[in-house]
Amino acid sequence: MARTDNNSGRKKPNILITGTPGTGKTTMASALSEATQLRHINIGDLVKEKNLHDGWDEKFECYILNEDLVCDELEDLMEEGGNIVDYHGCDFFPERWFDRVVVLQTENSVLYDRLTRRGYSGTKLTNNIECEIFQVLLEEAKESYPEEIVFTMRSDTIEDVNNNVSSLSDWIRSWNTAA
Ligand SMILES: Nc1ncnc2c1ncn2[C@@H]1O[C@H](COP(=O)(O)OP(=O)(O)O)[C@@H](O)[C@H]1O
Ligand SMILES: [Mg+2]
């Protein structure tokens, strides 16, 4: 790939994997991490482990992530490069952190089944399905990052995961040789 892709000074790229809960971010990020030896950072897990939150949100049944604490925690690693960040949000990370932003997308009925299997029901289920229908994460990504680094990828089947991992691995490899 063209050298112009690599103007960050990082030896390895940082990739953000985002999308509605259940679209397969963690599945794909861990497969990609295994294939490329890049570091998988699951923001949800990190927030819990390091207490980077302001308590539990009863209504949305999730931790209230503290954006400043998360960004401070990650700054050095992100500057170093070679990270795959996995989170269902993207507007609070510094724009300069990422070389590529991948928005995973899943067909509604497939996503519905996955979230039901995960135990989601009622408003939580509906909110997430609507989030996918209205492409909330894609809009957020386009508003937060340069359009040329934002890509959508299908995540309906395991074959999709394999194809996505393979094309992203190629891109990461070409980044290494271009540096
Ligand atoms: N592309 C895919 N095809 C089939 N099943 C998938 C796919 N992506 C994820 N899954 C399954 O869907 C569930 C949710 O995936 P997960 O990676 O935890 O999503 P997220 O991290 O985006 O919330 C898991 O049970 C996972 O095995
Ligand atoms: Mg996940």
Automatic annotation (TrEMBL):
Q: Which UniProt keywords apply?
A: ATP-binding, Cytoplasm, Kinase, Nucleotide-binding, Nucleus, Ribosome biogenesis, rRNA processing, Transferase
Q: What is the annotated localization of this protein?
A: Cytoplasm; Nucleus
Query: Which EC class, in a word?
Result: transferase
Q: Which InterPro entries match?
A: Adenyl_kinase_AK6 (IPR020618), P-loop_NTPase (IPR027417)
Region called NMPbind, residue ranges: 42-65
- For the ligand (ATP), the binding residues are G22, G24, K25, T26, T27, R118
What job does the chain carry out? Broad-specificity nucleoside monophosphate (NMP) kinase that catalyzes the reversible transfer of the terminal phosphate group between nucleoside triphosphates and monophosphates. Has also ATPase activity. Involved in the late cytoplasmic maturation steps of the 40S ribosomal particles, specifically 18S rRNA maturation. While NMP activity is not required for ribosome maturation, ATPase activity is. Associates transiently with small ribosomal subunit protein uS11. ATP hydrolysis breaks the interaction with uS11.
Fill in the subunit field for this protein: Interacts with small ribosomal subunit protein uS11. Not a structural component of 43S pre-ribosomes, but transiently interacts with them by binding to uS11.
Could you tell me what this protein is called? Adenylate kinase isoenzyme 6 homolog
Q: Which organism is it from?
A: Oldenlandia corymbosa var. corymbosa
